[in-house]
Amino acid sequence: MSYAQDVGSFVCNMGAIEHLTYAWVQKLSRDEIVVELATNMDLKPRIDLIKKLINRSDRLKDWRDSSLADWADVSGLITTRNALCHNPLLLSWMKPDESAKPDAMRTPLVKKIMRSEAGQEKMVDSAELDGAVRKSGALAQKLFLAISENKP
Predict the structure, then answer these.
(1) Which of 4, 12, 16, 24 could pair with 140 as two cysteines, CB 3.0-4.6 Å apart?
(2) Read out DSSP for 37-70?
(3) How far apart are the first and last CA of the chain?
(4) Is residue 114's pLDDT more than 60?
(5) pLDDT (0 to 100) of residue 109
(6) Is the pLDDT of residue 104 over 90?
């Protein structure tokens, strides 16, 4: 896939995961006020809430352990998500091309660039993005299946 397609896939996967956070809170919480409060939380605090709800649930220990590990993996993807969703996409052309397709695409981490020494660019590179696409897709599927099952 191209960098732009990878960005799109990753954003879609993370959007699915973000939607699942609401389903997890609703399924695991016994109090409607918790569900209501979760709708106003940013993603990271909402995931922290889900982890607490998992720990307090009466589901089997294996399910709790697996779910906590999956949500910890999601937490690890938040930095990449924020980088891609809150920074510009830089396009570069090396030569004229009738298709107008860029030769290179990068996502600079603007805040890190501003704080770094001159000439040291910080980027989300294609290898990091490729891994994030694969991991986020797998996690979205696992989290959907885990909360959809009616197991104890």
Answers:
(1) 16
(2) HHTTS-HHHHHHHHHHHHHHS-S-HHHHHHHHHH
(3) 40
(4) no
(5) 67
(6) no
pLDDT of residue 42: 94
Alpha-carbon distance 88 to 108, whole Å?
7
Q: In the prediction, which pLDDT does 84 show?
A: 83
Please give the biggest Cα pair distance in the chain: 62
Q: At what angle do helices 3-28 and 43-56 cross, to 10 degrees?
A: 40
- Determine the average pLDDT of the residues in 69-80: 94
Rounded Cα–Cα distance for residues 44 and 88 (Å): 22
Residue 68 and residue 91: Cα distance in Å, rounded?
38
Residue type, 21: T
Strands 104-108 and 90-92, bridge-based pairing = antiparallel
CB-CB contact of 116 with 122 (8 Å) = yes
Tokens for 32, please give them.
Answer: 């409607």
